[in-house]
Fold this protein.
Amino acid sequence: MLRKHLRRSSLLLLLWGLSLWSDAHILVYHRFDDPRHPTTNTSLRELRKEFSYLKEHHYRVVPLSTLVQALQTHRPIPDSWVVLTIDDGFKSFLKALPLFEEFGYPFTIFISTKPTQRGYPDFLSWQDLKKIAPFGQIALHSHAHPHLVDLSDEQIRADTQKGIELFKKNLGFLPTAYAYPYGEYDQRVKRIIESFGFEAIANQNIGAIGATSDPKDLDRIAMVGHANLSQALRYRHLDAQWIKPTDYPKDGILHEVKVRILPLYHTAWLYVTDHGWKRLPVKKGLVHAKLHYPLRKRRVRVIIKVKHSKINAKILVRSRYGAK
Ligand SMILES: [Zn+2]
């Protein structure tokens, strides 16, 4: 009996150890040195500070594909790995590119093909992208940057197909990674985007990447203004299976949260947009709460957190199509 108990304890410790030490972080940037848009801007001064921090603290900036391969082959994820991504393909990235080169940091830039195709001056041109291609990965961020949850299945497929075609035609290769516009998705959108066979799909849910993270649902931390990089790198991945909610509740009220986590914790904290944090007991690895939380915003974040800054976050987006 005792031996059995010990075996079980060491197994749990092993699992705990693995999950504690295996956490990469993916950061997402938007604009650089463009004070016209303070909510999506990072100054070059700030970027240099962040890059210097990563270097001084011996973080290894790796390409997204390296992280994805490690996840696909179930190799351990070194704690020091950081992946840098940029969304939207704004022209201002050209100002930041020399810094990426100076530090030798690879990156993935997710572009929407419509503004590029139309030659909007605020966006990178196909010519710019060809020049950037040798230094990093170029990937897809939809065609027209729509709110995907508000499109029908056919419209989502058409937007993605159009993006892939223009991408291939102008750059000569296929995109292997995708990032949801506005970081918005639900189970239906996820299923459709996945059907295109991208190796990696990125969201904008706060969190870290652990050995059990889904390469088709990668959490990223937004870096804007004076973002707190050291705090962002402290987050660890909480292995969690969301039983409820899976999508935005049809009646607009969050009635129940049910999440399975490793049976190592006695307490968890639940965050819901507009409702703040709530402490919950964990029983045999189950975080369970009956609630009556009216959801006022069309976009709601739900986060489960346990000790050691281990978190797992989810986004709920109101959709006129809803989950089937
Ligand atoms: Zn975007």
